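Much of what follows relies on a compact textual record of a protein's fold. A complete example follows; check for yourself that the lines match position by position.
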Amino acid sequence: MTTHPAGNPQPYPPQPGVHNPYAQQPQPQPQPPQSGPVAGPAERGKGATVLLLVSTILLGLMAGLFFAFDVSVMPGLAEADDRTYVTAMQNFNAAIDGNPLFGMAFMIALLLPVVSAILEYRKGRRDVAVWVAVGAVLYFIVLMITFSVNIPLNNELADAGNAAKMTDFSIVDKFKTTWVTTNILRTLLCTVALTALSRALVLYGRATR
């Protein structure tokens, strides 16, 4: 070891291939921040927003349709005679069945919430997905009631033919009891499903702020 004129020891000069503990170590350089999208539960997508919103609107339309029958159509028909009842109900059913817009909305009202629930689950918004799934399940029950009770009665009414030539009006009693009751049930289920999707919309808005 050499001695500085002031008496302070100085390290040996660096020797090739020899570790010098006094040598200055290189300082680590700061790394630039990573760029790119960061996925998370608050990620917002226009497709997810539109999907959830349209799902809610369609369920609202279905609930409104069933409710209209509950409070106006069926009570009004109940005051008519049997022939008028059959003729009017046949015309109502023919108008609805022949409307492609209704048929599309009726089925898409189930498809869109199912797709929305899956999408929300994959995005990490589990609470939103649960409420959407609840709405989808309730509306699926509505479809099962429709296809197992209301549509068979509608078909039976259509098969009865011209009301002016009918002699057996027992189908009217089935409508006044079974059809009306199940339609009230469909209204209630659709309303609860609509409430579930409305709750999902609120949670979605909070999660994507």
